[in-house]
């Protein structure tokens, strides 16, 4: 189909989203684990630079230590897990892709504090995995664009139920700069595969988060751009981060 601006009625197909990530997992053998999740198949140097800058910016803001219990939503191949697992108490990584979880599980099999499982992030079975109400940190990096609005609300509610009384939730999310952008069954020349996503505006994201986090004790402590203009190759979308704490 196409890239469609402003229409909030368009919906993502679950099957298409899963297929995309399983294809990415298979492609990781060719393009590497990093490009497989940053989507720079034809520009690996850009993937490396984005990864370095994102981690340099966000990692110090998380405050991870040996007492931390971390939920990594959409953990992928373990891009952030490698920065967290050696330094935290317990780590739980979830992803919709079997292929990604297989890669991450093998990569970190020597760590007894690392736990990986396959699940859509909006399925409440996550709350039965043994870490409900005890997480000190949650990482939600680039996952909300693959959810429809109703799924996103459930996901945010699940995050709330996972968190301990004193906790931090870090979001890093691509947004639509001027208006909502829905990408439906659009063939990406960069990745040479079909892509589906919803880039909400910052206002839409705030309204969605606030509607769920209201009276939870969580408040926005910090936000900003992740990348400079030099590392952003799109004019209609950009990467933002939001740190919520209670």
List keywords for this structure.
alpha/beta; globular; single chain; seven-stranded mixed sheet; 246 residues; three-stranded antiparallel sheet; Rossmann fold
List the helices and strands and how they pair.
Blueprint: E1 2-5, H1 14-31, H2 33-38, H3 44-62, E2 69-73, H4 81-84, E3 90-95, H5 98-107, E4 114-118, E5 135-141, H6 149-162, E6 163-176, E7 181-188, E8 193-199, H7 202-213, E9 219-225, E10 237-245
Parallel strand pairs: 2-3, 2-5, 3-4, 5-6
Antiparallel strand pairs: 1-7, 6-10, 7-8, 9-10
Describe this structure in words.
The chain is α/β, with parallel strands linked by helices and about 250 residues long. The protein has a single domain (about 1-245), classed as Vaccinia Virus protein VP39 (Rossmann fold), CATH 3.40.50.150. The protein contains 7 helices and 10 strands. A 7-stranded mixed beta sheet has the order 4-3-2-5-6-10-9, sandwiched between helices. A 3-stranded antiparallel beta sheet has the order 1-7-8. Strand 7 (about 180-190) and strand 8 (about 195-200) form a beta hairpin.
């Amino acid at each position: 189909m196409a890239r469609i601006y402003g229409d909030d009625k368009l919906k993502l197909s679950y099957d298409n989203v899963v297929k995309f990530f399983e294809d990415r997992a298979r492609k990781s053998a060719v393009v590497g684990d990093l490009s497989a999740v940053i989507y720079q198949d034809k520009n690996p140097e850009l993937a490396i630079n984005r990864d370095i800058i994102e981690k340099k910016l966000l990692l110090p803001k998380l405050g991870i230590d040996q007492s931390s219990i971390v939920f990594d939503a959409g953990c992928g191949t373990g891009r952030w897990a490698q920065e967290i697992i050696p330094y935290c108490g317990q780590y739980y990584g979830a992803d919709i892709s079997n292929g990604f979880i297989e890669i991450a599980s093998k990569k970190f099999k020597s760590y007894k504090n690392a736990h990986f499982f396959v699940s859509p992030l909006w399925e409440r079975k996550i709350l039965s995995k043994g870490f409900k109400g005890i997480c000190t940190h949650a990482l939600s990096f680039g996952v909300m664009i693959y959810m429809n609005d109703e799924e996103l609300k459930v996901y945010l509610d699940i995050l709330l139920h996972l968190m301990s009384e004193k906790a931090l939730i870090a979001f890093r999310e691509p947004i639509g700069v001027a208006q909502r952008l829905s990408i439906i069954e659009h063939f990406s020349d960069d990745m040479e595969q079909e892509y589906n996503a919803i880039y909400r505006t910052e206002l839409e994201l705030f309204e969605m988060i606030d509607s769920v986090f209201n009276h939870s004790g969580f408040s926005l402590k910090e936000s900003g751009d992740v990348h400079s203009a030099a590392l952003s190759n799109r004019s209609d979308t950009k990467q933002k981060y939001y740190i919520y704490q209670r």
